[in-house]
Design a protein that fits this description.
By secondary structure, the protein is of the alpha+beta class. It has nine helices and 15 strands. Helix 1 packs antiparallel against helix 3, helix 3 crosses helix 9 and helix 5 runs antiparallel to helix 6. The two termini are 13 Å apart. Its cofactor is Mn(2+).
Length: 384
């Protein structure tokens, strides 16, 4: 288990990362700090540059066995931190308000234990993944030819979660995180002087009609199999001027479904509404797609491994609500890479600010229980 000195050093490291957040695709400094920490603990094999700035550390057992991967995220968010902590972000407009600094530190804690007691069989892989927040990182790692060297049989991850007691676990087999997709719609006509709006082809009324129409296609509700949610996140029209009738508008929205199979249908329904509106008014329409996340599903066997580990090391379980509306790209390690994969929620307190809030900070007290669960999973599957 981790010593008191380990906890002190890992806490210091977590706060060090917290002060220097890097957003998706820009995690060069964070990756270098992770490599430095892995080298200091004597990680026998370190792969870098996976899918961008991804890092993987590998411990090889003497006997044949499965490859077991534990994954964390490197990236932060484009959010100004307002915690006022001494270790608050030093980078204006960027912050670790999702706790990825804590997840990364948990994996480094696991690495310390693996270095002291290497696995007896198979391989343990610590995957420090880039670009989770924009949904691009897991796919980029999977597409990297070097990933073939560490193709996992099992994959495990965690996410800290406000609303659960400190250090408690919540997990359930089956749907864990919704699929989501950002859709940007551009409607284009032409401008005129504001005194002669009849000479313009304005998207104003189309934008006004489309906002409630697309929201009606995804009303939300219970997170059952038929769940669909369309959230309008941004709208813009014309120029900030009083003398011009607008000729262009943008409508941004996020689409969510529990299952990947339903996303295509929701996208088709929303697109049909936009196309019909454009056709009836003479506007042209262009689409672009952003932040695409596939649904995340917990494998029953991997889920049971986490439940057994938590019980063995004294980590309490809470029910928690499943699936989450929020999205995660971790599920690709199961659906695309074929690993038995599962993610659990690690409680960060009932009164903790919500994730992505400017005053959120990962609680250091939950580093140790996170390491404890992962270490037990590794020992159960790999010995040592």
């Amino acid at each position: 288990m981790l010593t008191n000195a380990d906890i002190v050093e890992l806490t210091r490291f977590r706060r060090h990362l917290h002060q220097h957040p890097e957003v998706s695709g820009e995690e060069a400094w964070t990756a270098a700090e992770v490599v430095r920490a892995l080298e200091a603990m004597g990680a026998p094999q370190i792969l870098t540059g996976l899918g961008g700035h991804g890092v993987a550390a590998v411990w090889q057992g003497a006997e044949a066995g499965p490859t077991v991967m534990f994954r964390s995220e490197l990236d932060a968010l484009p959010i100004e931190e307002l915690t006022g902590n001494p270790w608050a972000s030093q980078i204006p407009g960027k912050g670790h308000q999702c706790g990825h600094d804590g997840h990364t530190t948990i994996l480094l804690g696991l690495g310390r234990l693996l270095s002291r007691r290497p696995p007896a069989r198979g391989r343990a892989v610590l995957m420090f993944q880039p670009a989770e927040e924009n949904g691009a990182g897991a796919a980029a790692v999977l597409d990297d030819p070097a990933f073939a060297e560490i193709q996992p049989d099992w994959a495990f991850s965690l996410h800290n979660f406000p609303g659960l007691d400190y250090g408690n676990m919540a997990i359930k087999a089956g749907p864990a995180n919704c699929a989501s997709r950002g859709l940007r719609v551009v409607l284009t006509g032409h401008t005129s002087h504001a005194s002669t709006p009849e000479h313009a082809l304005s998207p104003a009324l189309s934008l006004a009609r489309l906002i409630p129409a697309v929201m009606a296609e995804g009303p939300g509700g219970d997170l059952g199999d038929s769940f669909r949610l369309v959230t309008v996140t941004h709208a813009r029209m014309g120029e900030p001027a009083f003398g011009i009738t607008p000729g262009r508008a943008e409508l941004w929205m996020t689409l969510r479904t529990v299952h990947d199979r339903d996303m295509a249908d929701l996208l088709a329904r929303v697109s049909a509404l936009v196309d019909a509106e454009a056709q009836s008014t003479g506007l042209t329409v262009d689409y672009s797609h952003h932040d695409i996340f596939h649904a995340c599903t917990n494998d029953p066997d991997a889920t049971q491994r986490l439940l057994d580990a938590a019980e063995a090391v004294g980590v309490a379980r809470e029910d928690g609500g499943f699936p989450m509306r929020g999205s995660e790209d971790f599920g690709l390690f199961g659906s695309r890479a074929g690993a038995k994969s599962a993610m659990f929620r690690l409680g960060s307190g009932y009164k903790t600010p919500n994730l992505h809030n400017p005053d959120y900070d990962f609680p250091d007290d939950i580093i140790e229980p996170g390491v404890r669960v992962f270490d037990r999973v590794a020992r159960d599957l790999l010995g040592g």
